[in-house]
Specification:
With 464 residues, the chain is mainly alpha-helical. It is built from 16 helices and 12 strands.
Length: 464
């Protein structure tokens, strides 16, 4: 919504699309609570697991501790990108007597904390367990590559990304894994595939609150889900639709246009075709990614407001694009205001990495690329996976308060709706110009009420 990839008139989320999120927004509180729940659960493992009986193998204990550090790092990576300064909590018992005096810690300290957690995970998680649903040592290395990229530490970002690529623990569908395409990444049958580095694991048919609820919101209608949900509350913007070239194979796997046919949906009925009049949010297009179909389409692994489709947190494709950007960044030189959108490279290795992703999508090879080209590739590769907003937040530099390049990009996006004519006439009513303050979200009002110290300036963290 905020990135300009999706639009919705739904009251619970539309504020994210027009930059009017208040501190009383329910989804804002849900984000804060869910991520700090992961922190709390990780801390419980980290502080309690070392007391297990000596009969438990050290390797088992170390791996579990490593996984807890990686997941805590992942939660903090989301928290710091959404809210900026946040409290670093390692042991909640430290604050039992003074819960209303917890101060935030600065962004730079949060990133240092994340890197420390990931180094621990890299050293202690079991290597080469891709496909198990667990994070591995390689998962920690991969997330570290992404964190370093956000910090504009291009040398370490490249080193970590290439470490993961060259380990061959993971593989790209359609490149290293034959017989599979980009679209196959988003089928329940391919959960925990070779390209998956970190993914949320869901009960396959646990029902509301236990499975992945994305399909219930994203699917255009119950004709797709056949479980009574399918509310179509999010649709792609015209800006996202226009970003795809006609031969980009990722488009149909990500968004549906009227007339698109999907044999994997409603298989018993001969497949599903998006109707010509489909347009739940005014752009005459719908979301396909994470829409997997009915229980019959998925061997029973879906139910009302629930599917067993994993949610990707990190895929191998990201490593190729991170390595390409890191090479570009190193050649352009570090700048506190980030890379120029026109900064370019023809470095053979960087171009090779970018072309691997482009060719998988059915696109032609290039001999050079700009930072703007790379951002577009990232946008299309990870659309509807929750990544593009964070890319926009970082392109003006690490830990900055001004966002001129991102504001210019968003200001030019067509986020509006259209008429019901064929073809539809665009109304041009969806242009927004955010301000710098919109690039971080406010702390939830309930949290500040319980802990007024959140509103105070951050204090340096004392690392243990």
């Amino acid at each position: 919504m905020a990135s300009g990839n999706g639009r919705s008139g739904s009251d619970d989320v539309k504020a994210f699309g027009n930059f009017s999120v208040s501190n009383g927004n329910f989804e804002l509180s849900a984000a804060w609570n869910s991520l700090f729940t992961v922190v709390a659960q990780s801390n419980a493992v980290i502080y309690n697991l070392p007391t297990v009986p000596a009969s438990v193998p050290v390797s088992v204990v170390n791996n579990a501790l490593g996984e807890a550090h990686v997941l805590r790092a992942l939660a903090y990576f989301h928290l710091v990108r959404i809210f900026g300064n946040v409290p670093i909590i390692e042991n909640p018992l430290d604050f039992v007597g003074s819960p209303s005096t917890i101060r935030t810690n600065p962004v730079t300290d949060v990133y240092k904390f994340i890197i420390n957690d990931l180094k621990f995970g890299e050293a202690n998680c079991t290597p080469n367990v891709a496909g198990s649903g667990h994070v591995s040592s390689g998962s920690a290395s991969a997330l570290m590559a992404k964190v370093y990229l956000y910090m504009q530490d291009y040398a370490n970002a490249k080193a970590q990304a290439e470490k993961v690529i060259n380990s061959h623990e993971f593989g790209l569908f359609g490149v290293d894994v034959a017989g599979r395409t980009y679209a196959d990444l988003f089928k329940i049958a391919n959960n925990n595939n070779k390209e998956s580095i970190i993914a949320l694991q869901w009960l396959s048919n646990g029902g509301y609150g236990f499975g992945n609820g994305m399909q219930a919101s994203l699917a255009y209608s119950s004709a797709i889900t056949q479980t009574g949900d399918g509310y179509g509350v999010l649709a792609p913007t015209f800006d996202l639709i226009d970003a795809y070239s006609s031969n980009d194979q990722r488009r149909k796997a990500t968004i549906m246009l009227p007339g698109d046919y999907y044999p994997e949906l409603n298989q018993a009925g001969g497949g599903y075709t998006l109707p010509a009049n489909a347009g739940s949010q005014g752009t005459h297009a719908q979301i396909k990614k994470y829409v997997t179909g009915s229980p019959a389409d998925n061997g029973g692994k879906s139910a009302f407001q629930s599917t067993g489709m994993n949610t990707y947190m990190l895929r191998l494709a990201d490593m190729y694009l991170i390595a390409a950007e890191a090479i570009l960044g190193a050649s352009a030189g570090s700048s506190p205001t980030g890379l120029s959108l026109t900064a370019s490279t023809s470095d053979l290795t960087a171009v090779k990495y970018l072309n691997i992703i482009r060719q998988r999508a059915g696109l032609g090879v290039v001999s050079s690329f700009t930072f703007q080209d790379l951002l577009k590739e990232r946008r299309l590769e990870f659309a509807i996976e929750g990544d593009y907003w964070f890319d926009l937040c970082r392109i003006d530099g690490f830990n900055v308060t001004r966002h001129p390049k991102a504001i210019a990009i968003i200001k030019a996006q067509d986020r509006g709706d259209s008429s019901n004519d064929t073809p539809p006439v665009r109304f041009g009513n969806g242009y927004f110009t955010p301000v710098d303050a919109n690039f971080l979200l406010p702390y939830p009002a309930t949290e500040v009420a319980n802990d007024p110290a959140l509103a105070l300036p951050p204090v340096p963290y004392t690392f243990k």
